[in-house]
Design brief:
This protein has 298 residues and is an all-alpha fold. 76% of the residues lie in helices and 0% in strands. The protein has one domain (9-296).
Length: 298
């Protein structure tokens, strides 16, 4: 695990780019294994495996003590938005398309800015608000390939509304980190949030264990879960919490505007898609938005 000092902001921003790249990589991996296990069971293994792998490092480095009760309450509270979001995402994809969810996901930074005002009592400057608006437009342009008619024809179905509910919970995660953080080592907060998340998911998965034919589960599903546990759960949670405490919730949330860009790049590398020049305006708008939000947050 990488530790950097807040006095090196360029390193922190680099780590945020790494975080977005890891999050973007979860989409093709998740698509390949989504039918292998029930969503709640898959998410339980993802969280539980991440917690088990991280536990030795956390306890050997910080001692074998349980955090204070007030801290544990904060970790329990922090785990709820994550669990709700992932469950809404996987369940929502049963009723809607990846295109719709990609469009809805672009509202997370704007919702985060609203939560920051309510939870952290931090006002969003005009420059940052403009950046959030421009970033949302740019991300939507990329998702819909510059086709305005497709955007206007977007109709919210049950799956879309379910995913939107998940986004409302996810947007609260960053501001809540700053609210509940009490100066403990970052890896301690990361571990306990993931651990309590796995507990919630285990309770939700109890009925699914007996319905799965384990002999018929492909090895690729287990490999995908391991990848998601290590890189898109453990690593990204740590980077997200570190970045939020260093840069602030809104500036970190703004990096999600880059998710469609990284998904596009990953698809090109994997040979899944081809580059389209009509995407360039969207990429350009996202880059402008990132400049405005990061500049305003200094």
């Amino acid at each position: 695990m990488i530790f950097v000092k807040p006095s090196a902001p360029y390193v922190v921003h680099g780590l945020m780019l790494l975080m977005v790249a890891l999050v973007a990589s979860s989409f093709p991996v998740g698509a390949m294994i989504t039918s292998g296990l029930p969503p709640e069971l898959m998410m339980f293994f993802r969280f539980f495996l991440a917690a088990v792998m991280f536990a030795p490092y956390v306890f050997l480095k910080n001692g074998w003590q349980i955090p204070e009760f007030t801290q544990l309450k904060g970790y329990i509270f922090l785990s709820i938005p994550l669990v709700v979001f992932f469950l809404c995402m996987f369940e929502g994809l049963r009723y809607t398309t990846a295109l719709n969810t990609g469009a809805i996901y672009t509202v997370v930074p704007v919702i985060t800015a609203i939560y920051v005002l309510i939870i952290n009592r931090e006002k969003t400057s005009k420059r940052k608000s403009l950046g959030l608006l421009v970033g949302t437009l740019g991300a939507l342009w990329i998702v819909f390939r510059g086709d305005l008619q497709s955007l206007l024809q977007l109709q919210l179905n049950y799956g879309d509304l379910l995913f939107l509910l998940g986004c409302l919970f996810l947007a609260a995660y960053n501001p809540l980190i700053k609210k509940f953080y009490s100066g403990e080592a970052m890896e301690v907060m990361t571990f306990w949030v993931i651990a309590f998340g796995s507990v919630w998911l285990m309770l939700l998965s109890l009925s699914s264990f007996q319905d799965v034919v384990w002999q018929g589960v492909s090895s690729s599903v287990y490999l995908g879960i391991i990848y998601l546990a290590v890189f898109t759960t453990l690593a990204t949670f740590f980077l997200l919490q570190f970045g939020t405490l260093t840069l602030g919730a809104t500036r970190v949330a703004a990096y999600s505007f880059l998710t469609p860009v990284f998904v596009l790049i990953i698809n090109l590398v994997l040979g899944i898609g081809s580059f389209e020049f009509n995407l360039l305006p969207g990429v350009f708008l996202v880059l402008i938005a990132m400049f405005l939000v990061q500049k305003a947050g200094r």
